[in-house]
Amino acid sequence: MIKISIKNLNVFYKNIHALKNINLDVETNEILGIIGPSNSGKSSLLQVINRLSEMNNSKVTGEILLDTESIFSLPINSLRKRVGLIFATPTVLPGSIYKNVTYGPKLHKKFKKSELDELVYFALNTADLWNEVKDRLQESASKLSGGQQQRLCIARILALKPEVIMMDEPSSGLDPISTAKIEGTMVSLKDKYTFILVTNNTKQAARVSSRVAFFLSGEMIEIDKTEKMFTNPKDKRTNDYISGRFG
Amino acid sequence: MFKIKPKTTQIIAYSVLLALTFITIAVLVFIILFIFKNGIRELSWSFLTQPTKEMGKEGGILPSIVGTLLVTLFSIIIATPIGVGSAIYLTEYTKGGAIRRIISFGADCLAGMPSIIFGLFGFIFFVIMLKMGWSILSGGLTLAIMILPTIIRTSEEAIKSVPNAYREISYSLGGGKLDTIIKIVLPTALPGILTGVILGIGRAISETAAVIFTAGSSLNMPTSLFSSTRTLAVHFYILAREGISMPKAYGTATVLIIIILLINFIAYRLMHKFISKYY
Fold first, then answer.
1. Thinking of the domain A2-91+163-242, which architecture would CATH place it in?
2. What is the least distance, in Å, from the CA of A15 to any CA of chain B?
3. A93–B184: do the CB atoms touch at under 8 Å?
4. Which one of A78, A85, A108 has the shortest CB-CB distance to B172?
């Protein structure tokens, strides 16, 4: 089953051609890793799928389908509810942990207090954070450590009950233990959600993703099963990148 | 050759900065002590609660206290929503650009305008043209216009300093522009906005030139928004200038200063309570 289908996608920021003719299908319940050096267009891709790119004067041509509908014809808030985006820098909103988790859901519909409590438990528990914060849900979220903040960001997305979760280098600033926790969360959730994981860390992509796509200067060089990609890539540039010759 | 050691430079810089800070505080303390020294013996329960008699030579200043609070409150109630609203428009809806520069420039010019100009304008426009007469209404509206630029500029700065990441997060969770402004931007900017409002209150409450033309100088207890009133600052000015009673003038000034200090104190307490709850 194909969850997201990207066809002939081109993205321009002013005169920069950020993504060049991308064709890519994301399968349901897979973790698709996207690797590539900086400026290769990986993050732009996520921004376009979430339509956040519309905020910064970009021009997009081509088509992106979520299930069978074009994301550009979906109402923007329902698109963002279905396709969650987790940023590289964990940013918690001012306010309590509880508020951080409930902010998103409350934007979309009204909840009873008991429903919210349940949702907060579900989201924090799934993001592997509940045990660490259950006694201080009403305390400020900014007091959490970096790793905890990133898991709170994941919980915030999970509370929306999305279908696709996109992560933009979710562990770039985190210690190995926090990274392992986030990777564990991803793997344990992949039966329920579809993940797109953008990462600078090729080893991370190798550890968690089922397929990997390699981006370079706005082009998708190749996409394949993870084992194949890391043992026997078709393109020389992919081989050079994953063996650490550049990037 | 003579050379200053880095350590010596540090000591000099430290001492100079300390001295400058000390001067600032010393001036403030000196003014307050000077007024208090001359005015504190006038303070009594009856001074605060009695009507004014014989043009201020006798009696208390209750009508002026009430008038001052009403005029200030009214101006703040008018100026805050307008000021914060325009600040939101300028920062969130105009993407930099020419409009924003023009409005900001206008606001800065308005902020630098001498208050007597506002007084004259208020007199001609509110008092005469709109036939509001000398009243709390005219005075409050004039002060509102006067403090508007302060509130706009400080709110603008406060809203601008809200990290853009907060907005992105809110949008990425499916929030609209208005959700984001009301639920994220404004609460985060609130301490800064409040600072602007406090500055506005400070300007409004101690204003003389702009209110003497618009709120008048009646010593009667105000009964409605259309009553003329004499604010504490104006009362002080008239008492001192016309040589009616210097002790009463200092007494009035003392009360005014105490009110301002109280308002600032309460506002900052509220702000800290809010910040510690939110962050």
1. 3-Layer(aba) Sandwich (3.40)
2. 20
3. yes
4. A85
Question: Number of Cβ pairs closer than 8 Å across A and B?
Answer: 62
Q: Who among B169, B174, B187 is closest to A108 (CB)? A: B174
Compare all CA atoms of chain B with the CA of A142 and give the residue at the minimum distance. Answer: B279
Which DSSP category does B106 fall into? H
Q: Which of A29, A37, A30, A34 is nearest to A47 (CA)?
A: A34
Which residues of chain A register pLDDT less than 50? none
Q: Is A89 on the interface with B (CB under 8 A)?
A: yes
Q: What is the pLDDT of residue B229?
A: 92
**Mind telling me how many Å the CA of B197 is from chain A's nearest CA?**
22
Q: In terms of domains, do B38 and B50 share one?
A: no
% of chain B exceeding 90 in pLDDT:
61
Point out the residue among B168, B171, B279 whose CB comes nearest to the CB of A94. Answer: B279
Let me know whether B49 and B38 are in one domain: no
Angstrom distance (rounded) from CA B50 to CA A103: 53
Distances (CA, A) of A6 to A3, A72, B272: 10, 12, 50
- Same domain? For B98 and B185 the reply is yes
**What mean pLDDT comes out for the span B205-210?**
92
DSSP assignment, residue A192? T
| Residue A96 C-alpha from the chain's centroid | 24
Beta bridge partners of B53: B58
User: pLDDT tens, A7-44?
Assistant: 999 999 888 899 999 999 999 999 999 999 888 889 89
Structure confidence at residue B197 (pLDDT) = 92
| Residues A174, A189: Cα–Cα separation, whole Å | 20
Question: Does residue B278 have a pLDDT over 70?
Answer: no
B32-68 in b/e burial notation, b at 16+ Cβ within 10 A? eeebbebbeebeeeebeeeebeeebeebbbbbbbbbb
Q: Is B208 helix (H, G, I), strand (E, B) or coil?
A: coil
Measure Cα distances from B133 to A118, A218, B72, B128, B217 in Å: 60, 69, 18, 6, 12
Confidence of residue B277 (pLDDT cuts 50, 70, 90): low
Whether residue B1 is predicted with pLDDT greater than 70 in this model: the reply is no
pTM over 0.90: no
A177 in contact with chain B, both atoms CB, cutoff 8 A = no
Domain ranges of chain A: 2-91+163-242
